[in-house]
Amino acid sequence: MIEERFDAIVVGAGMAGNAAALTMAKRGMKVLQLERGEYPGSKNVQGAILYADMMEKLVPEFREEAPLERHLVEQRFWMMDDRSHVGMHYRSDDFNEERPNRYTIIRAQFDKWFSSKVREAGATVLCETTVTELVRDDRERIVGVRTDRRDGEIRADVVVLAEGVNGLLGTRAGLRSRPKPDNVALAVKEMHFLPRETIEARFNLKGDEGVVIEAAGTISRGMTGMGFIYANKECISLGIGCLVADFQRTAQTPYGMLDHFKQHPSVAPLIAGSEVKEYAAHLIPEGGYKAIPQLYGEGWVVVGDAAQLNNAIHREGSNLAMTSGRIAAEAIAKVKSRREPMTATNLSLYKKMLDESFVIKDLKKYKDMPMLMHTYSQNFFLTYPQLISKALQNFVRVDGTPKVEKEKATLKSFVKARSWTGLFADACRFTRAWR
Amino acid sequence: MNVEPTVRVEDKLYYNRYLVDVGRPHVTVRAHTTPSPQLLALLNACPARCYELNDNGQVEVTVDGCIECGTCRVIAEPTGDIKWSYPRGGYGVLFKFG
Lengths: 435, 98
Description:
- The complex is a heterodimer.
- Chain A is an alpha/beta fold.
- Chain A has helices at 15-26, 52-56, 62-65, 107-120, 168-172, 196-203, 244-250, 254-263, 268-271, 318-337, 344-355, 358-365, 369-375, 377-396, 403-418, 420-434; strands spanning 5-11, 31-34, 49-51, 71-80, 85-91, 102-104, 124-126, 131-136, 142-147, 153-161, 184-193, 209-217, 225-231, 235-243, 275-285, 296-297, 300-302.
- In chain A, the strands form three sheets. In chain A, strands 1, 2, 7, 8, 9, 10, 16 and 17 form an eight-stranded mixed β-sheet that branches. Chain A has a seven-stranded mixed β-sheet with strand order 5-4-12-13-14-11-15. Chain A has a two-stranded antiparallel ribbon with strand order 3-6.
- In chain A, a hairpin with a 7-residue loop joins strand 12 and strand 13 (225-231).
- In chain B, the strands form three sheets. A two-stranded antiparallel ribbon of chain B has the order 1-6. In chain B, strands 2-5 form a two-stranded antiparallel ribbon.
- The termini of chain B are far apart.
- Classes of the chains: A alpha/beta, B alpha+beta.
């Protein structure tokens, strides 16, 4: 047993865990961080986009030091059917600013660097250590953890659960429920390597400029899901994810969908001739506001993906993770500075602070979207993309048909597929859930 | 439409780095005669195709290629069909990029 006693134990060295450990260590607390991977980042998977504003609050000088790939100057949204895509692009030279707003990153590399900052701040980081159990005292308070190391019981005033979407500790201890199939998406991803110049030519980039493509439509075969393509310096992150409940229901395979996506005529030219170097899979919390569990208790708090803090509509997750980690750490440091115990009542400060932040405000705004997208997935991910694609093809193809007849045909195809009341109801549902 | 038969997951898994904890699988399937719907769902849902039917029609798991996503846990742990833990510290999949 490690005889030392810590002010705080942080379980996990992802975005949330690193943010929490760094913040507490910087405030002079004695912090132990436990990570099951060989090094911080070796178990972490993300697309990945880094949001600078939230990172800057943790490490102001990160742009000079961190392994960043490309800063984003363009975002594309693709609505796809089997042979085409309808796209909306936003590109602006304003994003070529001195302190860019978003970057693509490679998590294994970024997290390793992030962890070096945590160590520099004075925290003890112990890798290759899986926490197996939370330790309770006779009054059911969490007082430490047990690990798979020999005599691996370690005590602390508070345990920060930053164990990720599939965190076992909190669910095993009954602090929150296990993620449910309709609250998590399974995403699979490949890393496609190409020469830098090839990537820049294919995506219309110069220097360190980057592009993200978010894609939805028939690629998910009527399931609630999305594809993504992110340009890094010398590789492309490409993946697709759908709700686990949908995989369970349809018997589609994740790798089958990924390969289908790669073969799409809009996607294939972007990755042609690439060398694949990794295949990863990860769950993404998609339940939104309604799936957020109890966030604190006697001697513990939960942060990041483990707390389902992910904004699926805006594809934001790691920034919510690092913000919740930082806020939890600030709340803990405040309780400690008052020399008060880490009781549920005192730790409720974390929730209060999180409620006032963009994290909960954003999730609350979209609280009805997950249910809507899930319930009407056939409409939103199959029917409408097909209808819209057909409408646009009809609009641009010149074949001697009078425009009036073309418009009539388009309108008729929408009404035939969804009926007037159906179209009206879909529009109302969407507006209501969005606002 | 379906391209699955041509997709070889095994080839994808070869890209990855693993440190296999020989003899200590972190996921096990409960002994059964007829598989539950949840167990059968894992045959398709597992992104590493760790689950397969044996000659007797039972679902078996081989964890060597597991990417530790937790999908099988979400589907089949609540029914008691599988037992799920993380591998021992340092073992399992080791992402170079993640």
